[in-house]
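Please decode residue identities from the backbone states below.
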């Protein structure tokens, strides 16, 4: 897919029926993309295990689906319900980047978080993951460098965020 083509897929919540599609998406991530998503080189077993767990342990997984294939996703994991805190993680296959998919996933994830009552979303990425930092900067001014990691903190209020 080229950067000049407008994506025609849909952004939607993924469920257990999407487990194979989500797993296939994560398996298609190239080595640098896997490292950006998981913070290290991970085995295929790790990816398979992660995909299965993500759709069965209470996480909200929002996916960009085109032609019945997941090409990008965002996971939202509540880490502290009492304090309304969640973490988010993103993945978009390299040939599908720079088409607005990340922004669409972010907006959908924020809306899902709002429905759950999540007030604070933290997104960590490698300091070298400049595209993720640029995406986060569209939704928050709170970007921090912590060692080799960048942390974006989004305070999730009632007003909608721009995609």
């Amino acid at each position: 897919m080229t950067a000049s083509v407008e994506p025609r897929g849909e952004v939607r919540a993924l469920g257990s029926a999407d487990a194979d599609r989500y797993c296939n998406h994560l398996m298609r991530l190239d080595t640098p993309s896997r490292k950006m998503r998981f913070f290290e080189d991970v085995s295929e077993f790790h990816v398979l295990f992660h995909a299965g767990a993500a759709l069965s342990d209470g996480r909200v997984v929002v996916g960009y689906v085109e032609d019945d294939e997941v090409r990008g996703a965002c996971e939202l994991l509540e880490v502290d319900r009492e304090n309304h805190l969640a973490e988010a993680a993103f993945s978009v296959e390299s040939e599908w980047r720079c088409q607005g998919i990340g922004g669409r996933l972010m907006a959908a994830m924020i809306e899902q978080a709002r429905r759950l009552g999540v007030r604070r979303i933290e997104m960590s990425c490698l300091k070298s993951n400049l595209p993720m930092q640029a995406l986060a900067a569209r939704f928050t001014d709170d970007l921090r460098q912590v060692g080799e990691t960048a942390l974006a903190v989004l305070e999730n209020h009632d007003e909608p965020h721009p995609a």
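Observation: The two ends are 21 Å apart (CA to CA).
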